[in-house]
Fold these 4 entries.
Entry 1:
Amino acid sequence: QLQASGGGLVQAGGSLRLSCAASGRTFSTYAMGWFRQAPGKEREFVISISRSGFSTSVVDSVKGRFSISRDNVKSTVILEMNSLKPEDTAVYYCAASFRRFDPPSLESEFAIWGQGTQVTVSS
């Protein structure tokens, strides 16, 4: 199971930190990722991290602003979001993948999903 938290309302240019806590199977066997879904839009990939934490994949629209990290002891993945823009407003979902090496980026590669957490960026 995955439990996401940390969403909220922030002004443009601000920062937020999302957390996703995993329970059950050994956390280090999952690659982890974050997706988001804005109103009226399809869910889109944002960022992911490999099992080891050594590799990440990130969508161009958030490069340089968002980062992902993981703590395999605490079974937690963190999404740091800086320089937020109104277009970052969405429900953010964490997800787990059994992909072994490169960090996944396709929705179909993720097998377990957490509930979403709302991020709203005001202009």
Entry 2:
Amino acid sequence: QVQLVESGGGLVQPGGSLRLSCAASGIIFSINVMGWYRQAPGKQRELVAAITRGGNPNYADSVKGRFTISRDNARNTVYLQMNSLKPEDTAVYYCNADGEYLRNYGRASFDSWGQGTQVTVSS
């Protein structure tokens, strides 16, 4: 299977910046879409940003102009640069990726999630 490991969360003051990283590991054949979701206490998990293998991004309206998603296909890694952070951005951020991995008798699809990283925006 494919594992995703996130890093880069933490505590930051309003207006500050953080950069999240998520690396996929395993015998990966290809990764289609990589994305970031977040879940605040008492709320449903929501899409923050996603990016296709070709580099086309998609953002939630609440983060447009502040967050930038990018990926390094050679390293199977996706990044989320978060600027001008607000208290309402506080949440656990999860990485997601889907694609195909290699098995003994061919390829199989995967849709994997990371363990989550806490982002807290507070003064």
Entry 3:
Amino acid sequence: VQLVESGGGLVQAGGSMRLSCAPSGSTFRINAMGWYRQGPGKQRELVASISTGGTTNYADSVKGRFTISRDNSKNIVYLQMDSLRPEDTAVYYCHADWIYINSGEVQVGAYWGQGTLVTVSS
């Protein structure tokens, strides 16, 4: 199973963009979901995360500009990005933690998307 992102592309500084992410098939039970990004020459960093209960967490650099949300019934996660800046240019990756419990045995893991490029022009 893979996560499939959509919504990337080119936008001018100050503009908005919405990313979506959904699984390509059936999944184990999904817990927290989130978005990471990796800019040119930079390490991958957490942008935002959201729990199944709706608790959110944001990187300081995007607080007040980005909003993460999810549809638990479909395991879809969204990232609304407003007031975009050139430094937001990066490949954005969707992430989801999964858990599988069977006969007392617990397995955990993560699903990742292939990434979608967001380019913000100045």
Entry 4:
Amino acid sequence: VQLVESGGGLVQAGGSLRLSCAASGRTFSAYAMGWFRQAPGKEREFVASISRSGGNTYYTDSVKGRFPISRDNAKNTVYLQMNSLKPEDTAVYYCAAHPNIATMTLGRVESWGQGTQVTVSS
């Protein structure tokens, strides 16, 4: 599956952004979807994931309550609504797809997007 992210940008602390990831090439509903991020000088880390039906979601502790993940299987798109942004959220955000949500949450990803930059100024 091919993934294309959009929606990144520069925002002040406390602001919001919504990332989108459009999928093509395979059956979207067959994949769990997720978001990872990589800050300068750091390893890529898990942010959030959503099951194939959208019924289950998982988050890293630092974004719980701030970054709800959702998907629209009719539009082959997954979203990450980023609220109450902090400077430490600055990173390149990557969309991810994998058949199994459990292994994807551990970092095993079948397909990656190209990434979109999110910069939060203080």
